[in-house]
Amino acid sequence: MTWLAATPAQAQLAGGCTCPAGSFPSGTQCARLINGIPVAVPAICTVRNAINQSVGHIASSQQQQSFWGINQILQQRRDRIQGTPASGGASAKITGYSSSSFDSDPNTLSYSAQSQKNNPLASSLYDQAAVAAPTNPVWGTWLQGLADTEQDGALGPTDVGHVTNTYTAQGGLDRTQQGVLSADDALVLGVVSSWTHAHTGYDGSATTMDVTGPGVGVYTTYVKGGFSTDVTTTFNFLNMTQNFSSAAPNSSVSILSSGLSGNVQYKFTGLLGSDKNFVEPTAGFSLSHTSFGSGGSALGLEDAYTVRLQAGARVGTTWDAGGGISIDASLKALVYGNAIAQGTSVASATGVGGAPTIAPADEGLVRGELDPALSFNLPNDYSVTVSGQLRAGRAILGESVGLNLRKQF
Predict the structure, then answer these.
(1) Which among 38, 117, 353, 392 would be 20 to 30 A from 193, CA to CA?
(2) If we measure between CA atoms, which residue out of 20, 15, 313 comes closest to residue 158?
(3) All structural domains of the chain with their residue ranges
(4) Is 97's pLDDT higher than 50?
């Protein structure tokens, strides 16, 4: 048998396999010349192409998890600003919309601060002490942990089912400014940083993929009465590592995953005859873009785009647990789908001239999501929120849990 170096057009094997860089095909095998002697090396088969085609989807899912976590923070903040009834204890200070009888600091003769000011015999030092500490603006900081698992079934003959476990830690700092455009509105501006890790295993293969790295972003929400809207943008600087379990050389490439998310909602109170209960219709979108470093071109990777649309409603209630503690409970139900899902392109395994192909995408599929949340508003302006998420639909089943601690100043 004669061993000849193959041209790029020849470096294709039957069954969707390709030879690793620096090797060449011979029959149904690949080989590499070592000291002039041909040595067989493993071929990289269909699973590699299928894995590369799923990178955009996995990066988009990581982005979506970050959006969901930040939305939990904004949701809890809106509930406090909107001052749902029975939100006593610490929340009364957080909202700043209702005044307490203690704010006037009456003296021993029950004079109010204003009457003391009008009394020429009153002490000027008392006047200074009687001024309540301002609640506008309000600073807040938070920490959050998120965990998610998602099972994605194959959507076509060139797709490979996979399971991805994602873990994210996020922290942020924000500032609430009340009375921005009117006496009853508020604006929250914040920054967030994160670290995320996703591990993916593929059906029928020992191959795995890890996507890991830090992220930064900004978020904002505007509230006026029952109306609110929010916008979040994040940038994740990731590294993708593919482990082929000695079947082929491992590969690594840098990823920039950027995204934009926005929502609008309106809260109606008085559900079931109680002002403590509410229903909040909502609609939103998210955009994600995945691009690759110089190593991506060697793997045939191209940019991936995803546009998700969603709509639904949240119902909830608030009650006073005593001891300066109030509890907010809510359940959000959403219908969502990807209006655009342009997965990562790779060189075709069987196409002529390396024509690009894209794995079957979930574009146009309608799915459902449930998001329960429970917030404990504690004394000294602390709050703890426990949240969950369940996603289901064709070829997908996903679950998330989240825990965050917030402190207002």
Answers:
(1) 392
(2) 15
(3) 1-43, 48-89+135-408, 103-130
(4) no
Domain 48-89+135-408 carries which CATH code? 2.40.128.130
Q: Could you give the CA distance from residue 256 to residue 304 in angstroms, rounded to a whole number?
A: 11
381-385 long-range contacts (CB < 8 A, ≥24 apart) are: 381/90, 381/93, 381/94, 381/407, 381/408, 381/409, 382/90, 382/406, 382/407, 382/408, 383/76, 383/80, 383/90, 383/407, 383/408, 385/72, 385/73, 385/76
Answer yes or no: are the C-beta atoms of 266 and 279 closer than 8 Å: no
Share of the chain above pLDDT 70, in %: 74
Q: At 367, list the tokens.
A: 């799915």
pLDDT tens per residue across span 150-196:
999 988 776 788 999 999 999 999 999 999 999 999 999 999 999 99
Indicate the residue type of 328.
D
**Lowest mean pLDDT: which of 94-98, 124-128, 216-220, 268-272?**
94-98
158 alpha carbon, distance to own chain's centre:
28
Give pLDDT, residue 5: 38
pLDDT tens per residue, range 18-72: 666 677 776 656 777 888 777 776 555 555 666 777 888 899 999 999 999 999 9
Token representation of residue 358: 């894209």
Take residue 108 and report the two structure tokens written for it.
């021993």
pLDDT digits (tens, 9 = 90+) for 63-87: 999 999 999 999 999 999 998 443 3
